[in-house]
Amino acid sequence: MARTLDSYVVLNDGCKMPVVGFGTYAPPQLYSKDNTEEGTKMAIEVGYRHIDCAFIYGNEVEVGRAIRAKIADGTVQREDIFYTGKLWCTFQSPEFVRSALERTLKDLELDYVDLFIIHTPVEMKPGDDPLPKDENGKLIYHNTDIRDIWKALEDCKDAGLVRSIGVSNFNKRQLELILNKPGLKYKPVCNQVECHLYLNQGKLLEYCKSKDIILVGYSVLGSSRDDNWIDQNSPVLLKDPVLNAVAKKLSRTPAQVAMRFLLQRGIVVLAKSYTPERIKQNFQVFDFELGTEEMKTLAGLNKDLRYLGIPEWQEHPKYPFHDEY
């Protein structure tokens, strides 16, 4: 499919981010790392140029291998790919930021990443255990001034290890801490958050737009239903009757309509699937448009329902979801 003019957004630092990204998180009990590698290759072949991954997913080696394979066979050049990596909670001390990014680069076997974001403001005890717990099974928290983390990320950008820097799962108050930081050199280019028809993030979106920060949505099709994180009794978004009625009327899949709704609101979407047909379908969102009435109908589905609230983190003083937005 021909790439259209609206397939990229220009970030506040001048870099371009493709508006449809391929998400690579895969519940390890359901998918092997080989699935990740093959799925990423297929996504690049279909036309995805934005690949979203993270240290905590445990598959950056495989994703890097897929990217390099598609560069080697001439499908893409390195500059065609926009790769997002994330700084995990246990590396959120200024002295660990660069080494965490360098570890990602080593696993990927790439010279730079396009975007590196703070995965969540919920900091945990630094060290090699990604989910450190005490003798009672409680997570061991850590407290760092987020502005010091941001300064370390700015240094990584200046060193050429990363093109753009941003955040994820931040609320307005936490974003303002960075934006109002004395001596701020680079603003966050994005805030990556859960966003879908049941959690449309209207207020956070307007705030981010007012600060020239792009909202990037994950779980845009609902969620992966991973029982490690997700309440299995929560509604399945793609089975929503209103969404399905709109999709049927337009001869589109519910996933395509759910993604298009967010794209038309100026949100970058990350979609994840390891089914070849769905990988293709989820990229076919550039050649149709939702009308005003359809947008209004779909906006009415908002329930402020968060699939990924992670209740076990709620006691952390920086848990972001206590605030309204």
Automatic annotation (TrEMBL):
Q: Write out the catalytic residues in the record.
A: Y57 (proton donor)
**What does the UniProt keyword field contain?**
Eye lens protein
UniProt keyword annotation of Transcription present:
no
Query: Domain of life of the organism in this record?
Result: Eukaryota
Listed binding positions for substrate are H119
Q: Which Pfam families does the entry mention? A: Aldo_ket_red
Q: Which InterPro entries match?
A: AKR, AKR1C, Aldo/ket_reductase_CS, NAD(P)_OxRdtase_dom_sf, NADP_OxRdtase_dom
Kindly indicate whether the keyword Cell membrane belongs to this entry.
no
Q: What would you give as a GO molecular function for this chain, any one?
A: structural constituent of eye lens
Please state which protein family the record places this protein in: Belongs to the aldo/keto reductase family.
Query: What name does this protein carry?
Result: Rho crystallin
State the organism named in the record: Leptobrachium leishanense (Leishan spiny toad)
